[in-house]
TrEMBL record:
Domain Septin-type G residue range list: 19-282
UniProt entry keywords in alphabetical sequence: GTP-binding, Nucleotide-binding
Pfam families named among the record's database cross-references: Septin
Name of the protein in question: Septin-type G domain-containing protein
Span list, region Disordered: 355-389
GO cellular component, one term: cell cortex
Statement: the UniProt record of this protein carries the keyword GTP-binding: yes
CDD domains: CDC_Septin (cd01850)
Similarity-based family: Belongs to the TRAFAC class TrmE-Era-EngA-EngB-Septin-like GTPase superfamily. Septin GTPase family.
Keyword match Nucleotide-binding: yes
Amino acid sequence: MSSMSTSAIRLRKKKNVKKGIQFCLMVCGASGTGRTTFVNTLCNRSVLPGKDSDDPSTAHHEEGIKIKPQTIELELDEEGTRVSLTVVDTPGFGDNIDNEACFAEILTYLERLYDDILAEESRIKRNPRFRDNRVHVLLYFLMRRLSPRVNVIPVIGKADSLTPLELAESKKLIMEDIEHYRIPVYNFPYDIEEDDEDTVEENAELRGLMPFAIVGSEDVIEVDGRRMRARQYPWGIVEVENPRHSDFLAIRSALLHSHLADLKEITHDFLYENYRTEKLSKSVDPSGIMSASGMTGGGMENESLDPQSLASQSVRLKEEQLKREEEKLREIEIKVQREIESKRQELLARESQLKELESRMGRGETQQQMPGGFGGLGEEEEAEAGMER
């Protein structure tokens, strides 16, 4: 890793320790997929309550989806880096016979958060206490209609219920479906020519794990003198943080450490900017037809948002950001040079004035010392004065 990237990471860590980080995670999945256990394991505490058993007399009622955001404070490392983590749970998702309304409900929620940002940016005087609640990453559910609004990471919950062969086959089939249906997921983008070796190696490894096979547990048991989160079975123990048993450690590190900043940047620079463009274009075009964004009416078919495009968009956004920063530095440099030149000219003008003043003062003293000067009369003038007397 280059010294520049290392110093940038250190500076970011220092800033994060001082100010803290705001990060928003949404989890979607039908009941029984391990959504609650995963969140509680990720946060190392009970954040989401378990679902009560269904009442047989009301089991046929379809209550629909509920969106429940909850914010907690986590300390990520020994340096004291804090994250204000908002977990958005979606109980009821996928539990109905017709789940079409679930898509619209979640999409409306995501876009409402974008609208809040758009409204705040449009104010002349912004609220310093305004909180950005945009969702930076969504886990579990693969949805084409939500992917243009949020970074989606595919996850297999309760992975310990599958044999190694079944798990490998499930991962293979899921990734084939993602590629076939061009579902734009967050695939840990990297550029071999631009990024350093560590970044390329790390992102390639994470991409190879997708979809992440997760085993969660809220139970802490002792194994060989070590206390750990694990699941106890008659045939053995499944360790949550053992890479041979689960991808939990990899996804936790990606979400709360290595890729947290990248997820936030893509949310703001790409996903939100796309939505902002569409929203403003729609407000200008009364017909609601937006050829620039590839959307007509209420549709959301945007073929440019496949995984490869998302990777290239991320690289392009970073390049544009670097160009903007370089332009700002050049503008600052030009401004400083102009100020220096202006001060130099001002000093030269004052020096010239000072020399001219000194010259005048020197001429005045010379005239005083010269005969007939201002200091007295000459000999002829004195003689004439005596004759007159």
